[in-house]
Amino acid sequence: MWKTALKPRWIAGFIFAIAVSGVFVLLSQWQFGRSTSPEMPVNPDTEKVQPLTDTLQPGGFFPGSDADQMVSATGTYDPAKQVLVPGRLHDGKTGYWVVSAFAVDGAPTLTGSAASPRTWIPVARGWVADAAEATAPPSGAVQVTGRLLPSEAPVAGKAANPGEATAVSVAELINDWEISSYQGFVAATAEVAGGADVSAAAVPGNLLPLEIGPQPPAQQINWLNLFYSLEWVVFAGFAFFIWWRLVKDDYHRDLEDALDGHAEAHEPEQQPGTTRQPEHTDQKVQP
């Protein structure tokens, strides 16, 4: 059958089948790309810096609509309240997030026996490759600008090493720092102290900026487009099936022609001017 497939017309047919199936695959990719679409576009309002005290209330539920919002707040750091969060990636390298407690000026004060005189928020100030490279936060009054993110969940079944936290978990940090806090944290993009930006993004050093952008919106699946993408894949395979079927039919025709030619070649030749008589056997008729 390979001999039949190597005929010039079937080689050309195979090339044509490849071209047709390639077009079908491209159409499948196009339909697959259209099968997923964001449920809602990225909100440009999240990139407009808003005061933290006007955006989120401490001690309560963290609304999903506040996630990714760029916020600013003025206050002070406590260098004694700083932890490292291990297992964080930066440009393919594993290191630590440096997270410091930031007392927010003008934030509402919570009530209760465990409430602190001031309200704080954890601030992820940057990333370091080695724990020894973590620096103390800037002193004095600081204006922090960054992206507001919901609290992470603590890693279950894992005890943090001294000076570390398993995650940027407000529930874990407030027990360690013994403070009242917002139910979220800020990934800092700027820290202005004394009129100068002293953040990891502005000052060269071992502390590198986090550069956390807005999270992509959830995707919505269009099942009809997904079905069409699978359908085009089937069509691509069908192009090769048709080529193989045509080659097979041609192969069978060649076999039939060869068998007919073989039968004609072995048929006895008849002498000219003679007629073949049917063979018969004389039979005696009993009286």
List its salient traits.
single chain, 287 residues, alpha/beta, 2 domains, five-stranded mixed β-barrel
What does this structure look like?
The chain has 287 residues and is of the alpha/beta class. The protein has 2 domains: 69 residues; 173 residues, no CATH class. Helix content is 30%, strand content 26%. The strands form 2 sheets. Strands 3-4-5-8-6 form a 5-stranded mixed beta barrel. It has a two-stranded antiparallel sheet with strand order 1-10. Helix 2 runs antiparallel to helix 5. The longest helix has 43 residues. The chain is rod-shaped, with a radius of gyration of 40 Å.
Taking pLDDT < 50 over at least 5 consecutive residues as the criterion, the unreliable ranges are none
C-alpha termini separation: 66 Å
Helix percent band: 25-40%
Backbone CA Rg? 40 Å
Total strands: the figure is 10
The H-and-E topology, N to C, reads as HHEEHEEEEHEEEEH
- Biggest pleated sheet: 5 strands, mixed, barrel
Q: Taking strands numbered 1, 2, ... along the chain, how are they ordered across the largest sheet?
A: 3-4-5-8-6
Taken as a percent bin, the fraction of beta residues is 25-35%
Class by SSE composition: alpha/beta
Principal-axes shape call: rod-shaped
Number of helices: 5
Question: TL;DR?
Answer:
The chain is α/β, with parallel strands linked by helices. It has five helices and ten strands, in the order ααββαββββαββββα. The strands form two sheets. It has a five-stranded mixed β-barrel. It has a two-stranded antiparallel ribbon with strand order 1-10.
